[in-house]
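sry for the spam today, last one i promise. struct tokens for design, 515 residues
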């Protein structure tokens, strides 16, 4: 296959938007792309939903638009040799096997409606059994993961209950919904997920990488309704219609794992942090799955081919990063555009003693407290909107510092620098604050599309495609490095105040219920 002219497409289906990007197989650079924003719906407090049909239609529209753009560049669509998918993880879709129609809106990963489901499990099961479950799947019992979302749908949605009784229920994460529809849907569409997405459900055994009978029994979810687990890099099928008809679909990675691959974190001990709607720090632990003792998750990093070894990672997940900036924009009206936050925050030298803990739907790693709620503390008459803006950027950086501390303790090998990616990394003030609060250099690549690149690498590495080889893929030397500029005493004093603020936001829902 001629690598010089070959192109690889990446479908990047995220929480806030859908994008399709075309990469050059020779250079790894973006040739063209198209992006469409995606609506989220909030039917009740703490609930976050999306329309599965809108998710699919935005993917198809983006595919059509990039083909038009390729034609305008005088590039032949026949040069696209493979398609990879990367997706928002844990978001759960249910649909009818006979009609292909969704049975409910997709329940998005940060949705907190399943708190009562989680509480019921915790009330019925001894702590020792919950710990056994965590060891099997690598994940703590939380509203975050797909199994409790499936359980809620089975318990509460009549159409889902009926579908499972009549053997019509199909359920999966966003990758499964997209692959099924792009490869034929009700007309022989394939029903699969990849090992990275499966590792986020609480239903896959982290060691065997198969659906686990004990885990499915614990959540009372029939194993027969689940899709087949595949590797992250193999030809699953060919796309059956639309702009990419006939092109092999050969790569699939959850978005954070895709960023790990896109950042070339192929060696044990390498790590990256992605700043998007949430914040996700992944640390490659090699072929060993390490159980965290400091609130982190054990997850699959990638598996490049059915016969290749599974590579694992430790992950720290923060629910709210870019979403906090969005809240300043849409909820408080402090800024007109999300990008305005950098100039506003730069207009003051510090946060004026204000601290913001954006625990809108509880706290994820390393606390896993579903009853925490957001607070802004340390306010005085001196505090203005610029201080709040700066406190918001500091909140993202403080949460990353907490993840890094936990990771260093679990791995025993402290990171000496941090690779970063995601939309928020365009904010240079945030990157400098991050370096200052970590005390290590922060490394930002010039090519920030690392998540989509990871999906393209997975697709291009598949047997039968072989346009990329991760063994020879080199890290980019085109980077900006942010060096820490504050001394350790100032850094630690600032951090200890943050820890106090976090303690103040804990058990807020619990305390409210008792008042």
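last one done:
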């Amino acid at each position: 296959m001629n690598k010089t002219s070959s192109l690889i497409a990446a479908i990047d289906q995220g929480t806030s938007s859908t994008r399709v990007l075309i990469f050059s197989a020779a250079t790894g650079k973006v040739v063209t792309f198209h992006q469409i924003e995606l609506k989220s719906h909030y039917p009740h407090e703490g609930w976050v939903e999306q329309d599965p049909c809108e998710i699919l239609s935005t993917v198809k529209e983006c595919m059509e638009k990039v083909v038009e753009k390729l034609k305008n560049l005088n590039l032949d669509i026949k040069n696209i040799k493979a398609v990879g998918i990367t997706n928002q993880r844990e978001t759960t879709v249910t649909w009818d096997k006979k009609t292909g129609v969704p049975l409910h809106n997709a329940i998005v990963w940060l949705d907190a409606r399943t708190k009562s489901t989680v509480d019921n499990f915790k009330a019925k099961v001894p702590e020792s059994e919950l710990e056994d479950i965590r060891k099997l799947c690598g994940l703590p019992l939380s509203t975050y993961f797909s199994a409790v979302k499936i359980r809620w749908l089975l318990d509460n949605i009549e159409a889902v209950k009926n579908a499972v009784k009549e053997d019509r229920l199909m359920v999966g994460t966003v990758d499964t919904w997209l692959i099924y529809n792009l490869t034929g849907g009700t007309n022989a569409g394939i029903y699969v997920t990849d090992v990275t997405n499966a590792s986020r459900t609480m239903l896959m055994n982290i060691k065997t990488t198969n659906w686990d009978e004990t885990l499915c029994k614990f959540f009372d979810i029939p194993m027969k309704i689940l899709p087949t687990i595949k590797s992250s890099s193999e030809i699953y099928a060919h796309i059956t219609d639309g702009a990419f008809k006939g092109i092999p679909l050969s790569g699939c990675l959850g978005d954070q794992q895709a960023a790990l691959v896109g950042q070339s974190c192929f060696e044990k001990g390498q790590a990256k942090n992605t700043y998007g709607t949430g914040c996700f720090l992944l640390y490659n632990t090699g072929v060993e799955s390490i159980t965290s003792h400091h609130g982190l998750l054990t997850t699959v990093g990638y598996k490049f081919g059915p016969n290749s070894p599974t590579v694992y990672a430790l992950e720290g997940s923060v629910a709210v990063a870019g979403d906090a900036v969005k809240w300043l924009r849409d909820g408080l009206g402090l800024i007109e555009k999300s990008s305005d936050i950098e100039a506003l925050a730069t207009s003051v030298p510090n946060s004026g003693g204000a601290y913001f803990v954006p625990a809108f739907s509880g706290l994820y790693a390393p606390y896993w407290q579903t009853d925490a709620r957001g607070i802004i503390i340390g306010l005085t008459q001196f505090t203005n909107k610029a201080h709040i803006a700066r406190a918001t950027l500091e909140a993202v950086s403080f949460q990353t510092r907490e993840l890094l501390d936990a990771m260093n303790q679990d791995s025993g090998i402290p990171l000496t620098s941090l690779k970063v990616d995601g939309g928020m990394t365009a904010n240079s003030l945030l990157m400098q604050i991050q370096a200052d609060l970590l005390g290590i250099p922060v490394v930002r690549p010039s090519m920030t599309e690392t998540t989509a690149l990871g999906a393209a690498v997975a697709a291009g590495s598949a047997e039968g495609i072989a346009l990329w080889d991760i063994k020879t893929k080199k890290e980019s030397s085109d980077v900006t490095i942010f060096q820490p500029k504050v001394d350790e005493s100032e850094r630690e004093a600032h951090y200890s105040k943050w820890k106090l603020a976090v303690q103040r936001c804990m058990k807020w829902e619990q305390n409210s219920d008792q008042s």
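The chain has 16 helices and 21 strands. ok im logging off now
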